[in-house]
């Protein structure tokens, strides 16, 4: 019985995109990484305004340890933070976006002002 339920879940359309709140225009491609409860180590208490191109895939660092902030450089693997994964995303329009550097945002990867709280 449980096996059939699992098969149905596997054949269902996967949740691959997420568009929320201030993250309008951002298509999150790694849904599981987007909803992890872990909030990373703050890289800086501010947003990081970055020029992003439409249709290009970016990997936002959610652990806060990357030296290429706000983007992932794989440091989370070296330090053994295996539960933390980067949030892969694209933007719908080319432009400047405020990416979160404090890692406390509820609208990953877009800054929601949590660093001001």
Q: Which sequence of strands runs across the widest sheet?
A: 1-4-3
The gross shape turns out to be globular
Number of helices: 3
Estimate the strand proportion: 15-25%
Structural class: alpha+beta
CA(first)-CA(last) distance:
48 Å
Overall pLDDT: 79
Low-confidence stretches: 1-21
Rounded radius of gyration (Å): 15 Å
Helix percentage range: 10-25%
Cofactor: [2Fe-2S] cluster
InterPro entries: CISD, FeS-contain_CDGSH-typ, MitoNEET_CISD
Keywords: 2Fe-2S, Iron, Iron-sulfur, Metal-binding
Protein name: Iron-binding zinc finger CDGSH type domain-containing protein
Folded structure, characterized:
This is Iron-binding zinc finger CDGSH type domain-containing protein. One of its GO terms (cellular component) is mitochondrion. InterPro entries: CISD, FeS-contain_CDGSH-typ, MitoNEET_CISD. Pfam families: zf-CDGSH. There is one protein chain. The protein has 117 residues and is α+β, with helices and mostly antiparallel strands. The protein has one domain. It has helices at residues 2-11, 31-34, 75-78, and strands at 26-28, 47-52, 58-60, 87-91, 95-100. The strands form two sheets. Strands 1-4-3 form a three-stranded antiparallel sheet. Strands 2-5 form a two-stranded antiparallel ribbon. The chain is globular. The termini are far apart. Mean pLDDT is 79; it is low at 1-21.
């Amino acid at each position: 019985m449980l096996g059939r339920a699992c098969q149905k879940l596997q054949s269902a359309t996967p949740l691959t995109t997420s568009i929320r709140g201030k993250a309008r225009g951002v298509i999150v491609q790694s849904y599981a990484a987007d909803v992890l409860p872990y909030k990373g180590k703050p890289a800086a208490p501010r947003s990081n305004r970055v020029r992003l191109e439409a249709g290009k895939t970016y990997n936002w660092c959610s652990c806060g340890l990357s030296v290429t902030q706000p983007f992932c450089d794989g440091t989370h693997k070296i330090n053994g933070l295996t539960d933390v994964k980067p949030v892969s995303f694209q933007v719908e329009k080319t432009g400047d976006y405020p990416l979160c550097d404090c890692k406390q945002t509820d609208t990953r990867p877009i800054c929601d002002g949590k660093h001001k709280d």
